[in-house]
Structure formats: C-alpha cells, structure tokens
Amino acid sequence: MSSTAQAQKKGFGATLWDYLTTVDHKKIAILYLVSGGFFFVVGGIEAMLIRIQLAVPANDFVSAGVYNQIMTMHGTTMIFLAAMPLLFAFMNAVVPLQIGARDVAFPFLNSLGFWLFFFGGVFLNLSWFLGGAPDAGWTSYASLAIASGGHGVDFYALGLQISGAGTLIAGINFLVTIINMRAPGMTYMRMPMFTWTTFIASALILFAFPPLTVGLFFLILDRMFFANFFAVEMGGNTIIWEHLFWIFGHPEVYILVLPAFGIFSEIFAIFSRKRLFGYSALVFATILIGFYGFMVWAHHMFTTGLGATANAIFAVATMAIAVPTGVKIFNWLLTIWGGNISFSTPMLYALGFIPSFVAGGVTGVMQAVAPLDYQLHDSYFIVAHFHYVIVGGVVLALLGGLHLYWPKMFGTMLSEKLGKITFALFFFGFHATFFIQHFLGLLGMPRRVYTFVGDQGWDLYNLISSVGAAFMALGVITLVINIIMTSVKNERVGNDPWEDGRTLEWAIPSPPPFYNFKQTPLVRGLDTYWIEKMEGNPEGMTYAEPIGDIHMPNNSIIPFIMSAGLFVAAFGALYFIDGDKAWPLPVLALGLLITLGSMAARSLKDDLGYHIHKEDLLKEGGQPGGH
Q1: Mutual orientation of helices 279-292 and 238-272 as an angle, nearest 10°?
Q2: Taking 60 as the threshold, does the pLDDT of residue 622 lie above it?
Q3: What is the DSSP-derived secondary structure letter of residue 553?
Q4: Cβ-contact 110, 28 below 8 angstroms
Q5: In a 3-state reduction of DSSP, which class is residue 88?
Q6: For 245-249, 260-264, 521-525, 547-551, which range has the lowest pLDDT when averaged over its residues?
Q7: Using one digit for the tens of pLDDT, what is the confidence trace for 277-329?
Q8: CA distance linking residue 300 with residue 342, whole number of Å
Q9: Measured between alpha carbons, how far is residue 411 from residues 44, 82, 511, 513 in Å?
Q10: Which of 592, 593, 573 is nearest to 583 (CA)?
Q11: Which residues contact 525 (CB under 8 A, 6 or more apart)?
C-alpha cells in the first residue's frame, strides 16, 4: 500500500503528525512543493504590487518605503523561498527513484533541511507584521543594509542564515546519495540527466553557500554588535559584501538553472520518444557550467572600480560560460529533430523554454562587454535579462516539471486542457512583461525606482509590462484551479502515465510505495526502463537481488523541534540589541536550549529503524509491517 493511500485512511491529526515527523523523501518532496508553492504565490503577489505601482507615472499606490520593502521581499522570496524549495521538491521526489535507491543517504538530515528552510522562510516573512520588512534589495548591499532603520534587515540576515543552513544540508545529502546509493549497474555515465544536474547543483551548493553564510554572519555582527566589517566610515569595506554575496550569487543562478536543465532534458527525451542526443556532451557541459560558475561573479561588479585587468578576466570568463550552455541548446534541438513529438503540456513548456532562455543568455553575454555594462548596469535592461533567465529558464521548468511529475508524486493526472491554458496565459504574459523592459532599460529607466515622471517615453512600455504581469497571474490562478479539480476527482493513473517513460521512476507504482523498490533493480544501460520495455520485460526492471527484508528509518519529530528552537532563538537575538527589553535574552537562551537539547536527544537515541518482512512484501496489496 502506498504512503498516500495510507494517509487517506488516517484522520487529519494523524496525517499532520505523519508529515511533521516524516523522514520519507517522497513526503518531504510534498512538504517542499506545498511550502515552495505558497511562497511562490506570496512572491507573485509582491510582483503584482510592484507592477501596479509602476503601471502609470507618478503613481501613489504605495509609498517609497513600502515599495522598497515589497521589491526586496519579492526577490528574496522568489530566489530563496520559492525556486530553491520547488526544485528540492522534484529532487526529493525523483532522484532516489531514478538511481534505484530506497531513500536518500541521510533521511533524518533530509527532514532537518526542510524544517530549517521552512522556519527561516516564516521568520523572514513575519517581518511584515513586526515593524517592517527588509528594504535594502534582495542583494542587501551593505552600504544600504547597515543604514536601514528598524529590524527588517535583521530579519533578512537571520532568516536566510537559518534557511541557508537547510539548503546546505540538503545539498550535502544529495551529493552523498548520488555517489553512494546508485543501483548496481548505474555507472555515472548511465545516470539520468536530472540526476546529473542535481549532482552538480548540489556540489555548487556545497561551495557557494558558505560565502553567503560568512557574509550574513558579518552583516549580523555589523548590525547588532557594531563590528564594522562593512562600515566604510569605521574602516570597513562595503565592497567585500558584494564579493561575498556574488561568489554565492552567481553560482546560485546555476544552482537553480542546472536542475531546470535536467527537467527539460527528461521532457525532451520522453516526448520526442528518443534518447537524448549527445548524452556525454550534455554531461560534460553540465560539469563545465558548474566549474565556470565560480569564475564569473565579478561581472556583477564591473562598475565598482575593480580595474581594467579584473574586468577583462571576468569578461572573458562570462563569454566562455556561454559555450557549454550553447552545447546543451543544440543537443536539445537535435533530440527533438526527427522525433515522434507529443505536444503534451510539459513539452510545450520545454519548447517555450528554448527561445526564452536563449534570449536571456544573449542579453547576459552582452553584459560581458564591460563598456556596454557601464551603460546598462542597474537599468531595466538588467531586470529584463535576469527575468528571462530565471522565469524563462527556472519557472518554466518548474511548471513543466509539475505537470510531468504530478502523476508520479500523487497518482493523478493534471488536466491537459487546463495545463495548456495555463501555459498560454503564463508564456504570453511573461514575454509581454519582460521583453518590453529591455527597451525601458535602453531608454534609461533605472532599476528599483518606485515611481517615474511621465513623458519620458516610458509610460506605454510600463503599462504593457503591468498588463503582461496580470496574464501571468491568471496563468497561476488557472494552475491552482487545475490542482484543486484534479485532487477532487482523484482519478488514479498507472506506473507510466505518459507511456514513454525512460528511467526507473516510471517502472514503479504512482505514487510509489514508501520503500520505493521491493527489490533493488539492475541497471543495464542508459534509459534502463526504456531498454526493459523494448525487450518485453513486463515488470520494466531486471532485479539485482532476490526479494528479502527491507530496512527502513524511523520517523522523528526532532528535526522539527531543532528548527523551531533556532526560530525562537532568532527572535531573542533580533531584539537583544535593543537593550530596553528584559525578555530577549531568556528567549535566546530558551531557543538555543531547545535546539541543543534536541540534538542531544538525537545523539543519545538508539535509532536503528525497522524491518519490512519479506512475507509482507510478497502479499499483493498487503501492508508491510513488523519492526
């Protein structure tokens, strides 16, 4: 019996407890999906408020201060609290299945990573209700952040510190999982492309998040304890923040984009009914993108006076990183070429992605030319470029991946008709919103302005951009309706609902049982499920072992408690510096005590998991049991 079917037989309280304590990667995927989806809607509402404010000149829909908070929270929410967790949802749901594993390497840490992300995100958004949100931009440059009044920037630094710890834990977990838990026969060059891109993105997380952690730690010390790492008037250097942020920030783009590439690679192969063209080239292009991603950060800083030599080095590196990306584009096009194409909803997103992302890439390579960047830097041209990369690459992948993997995660199929309406509305709205912003930038409209004077040639373009944003919102609303209708109908689907699945996740029931595979599969080549189907294997798998007992980890509430403790401690730290209140220090101590106590409880607990007995596995539809 699947874990979803079990949950349907439980009451709400039991199901809630199940999700609070789960260490099952498939349930954690659902937690990431729901939480990331919520934050995506929040970030989208913030985006709509921005476009309403800028729809007409001299608008007073929101004040300058509130606009700065909305703009900061939109960027921060979309990058850290929506895109990242939604990608982790697909990584958790799919990667262990693709490599033939029964779970990730560290199920307990997988749960801890989610709850740290969740509590960090909640903490950050509570700033709206507790004196004001951060207002120094999503990059929170130190010169602005240190001068910002109130506690908004403190919420930013502490919230991202907690959430970032969860991301780092998740990245390490996937690295170890992919290295150590692949099924027999699954060599590195037989791994599906989504697994490969998850692997490289996790390696980027391992090296990119520590600089952000250090920068946020310095910012916290500057803001709360007057350490003056970045305060220029006290001998600090505000440019150091920019270096630390962008040493994280540019690899972060590839942490988001590479898994998106992996999702599209799966879609192109499935719906073209062809093996990916140039698989080896795609793998090495992925590795190269990961390597080059750490060599280009200062192209965000061409205008800070680094000097001609530094600018030239980073300009060349920025041009070079376009090469492996171009290799990927041509491989995808040649995968489609001559294929038996099915224009299902996921394929529409994949086909729409190619011209959209190429446009974002071309405008990015333009910024590699430092003299041109001097003209376009901090103009709306950069806003357009960035959103063509992130929305045209990552968000289209998230929407396409949602339609592709929904039946595997939940056992039901989203409506194709509503899916295509969602695509049409969102895709048209996306281009209407951001294509026109290139021209706003060329006409001199700066970023981050909360209003503008009329009759500068910007009026019509801003109005068109705001109307486009409304179409994107309608697309998301249609998607939500689709999800609700599908959940209500609850029409079940089989193992391979798209009928052309190529990798192991399509060989097992939808949704998968909580142990994933009764027997460890034997991988006999790239696209192993496709090989088995072509050879007429009715089970879709060759097994590497006879059926036997399965060892599974126990659920645990400790990750939730540990994360909640840090959440409480962050409030104590936030208000401790005010000095006029007695409660922050005890709250800080209480939060740290909760976290450290739960860590001690975990270390002292003899948690050996439990066994599912062979006899229970052999029962058709039987409930595995027996600890």
Answers
A1: 170
A2: no
A3: P
A4: yes
A5: helix
A6: 547-551
A7: 999 999 999 999 999 999 999 999 999 999 999 999 999 999 999 999 999 99
A8: 40
A9: 28, 24, 5, 11
A10: 573
A11: 190, 531
Nearest to 113 by CA among 194, 173, 62: 173
Tell me the HSE value of 97 on the side-chain side, using a 13 A CA sphere.
30
The letter for the amino acid at 492 is R
Tell me the C-alpha distance between 505 and 98, whole Å.
5
Q: Closest Cα partner for 259 from 405, 158, 363?
A: 405
Bridge partners of 543? Answer: 521
DSSP-derived letter for residue 285 is H
CB 135 within 8 A of CB 448: no
Query: The tokens of 117 are what?
Result: 């992300």
Q: Is 247 left (phi over 0), alpha (psi -120 to 50) or beta?
A: alpha
Q: How confident is the model at residue 10 (pLDDT cuts 50, 70, 90)?
A: low
In the chain, where the domains are located: 3-536+549-556+607-618
> How far apart (Å, rounded) are the C-alpha atoms in residues 379 and 623?
60
C-alpha pair distances (Å), 459 with each of 64, 88, 193, 387, 436: 19, 40, 44, 21, 11
Superfamily of domain 3-536+549-556+607-618: Cytochrome c oxidase-like, subunit I domain (1.20.210.10)
CB 42 within 8 A of CB 4: no
Distances in whole angstroms, Cα of residue 73 to Cα of each of 81, 387, 531: 10, 16, 47
Residue from 7, 129, 3 nearest 571 by CA? 129
What are the structure tokens assigned to 163, written together? 């959430």
- Number of Cβ atoms within 10 Å of the Cβ of 32: 25
Give the relative orientation of helices 107-125 and 25-53 as an angle to the nearest 10 degrees: 20
Could you give the CA distance from residue 68 to residue 62 in angstroms, rounded to a whole number? 10
Task: Say which residues have a Cβ less than 8 Å from residue 605's Cβ, sequence separation at least 6.
Answer: none
pLDDT tens by residue, 185-203: 999 999 999 999 999 999 9
Rounded mean pLDDT of 366-392? 95
Dihedrals φ, ψ of 169, to 5°? -60, -45
Residues in the chain: 627
* Non-local CB neighbours of 309 within 8 Å, separated by 6+ positions: none
Strand, coil or helix: 228 = coil
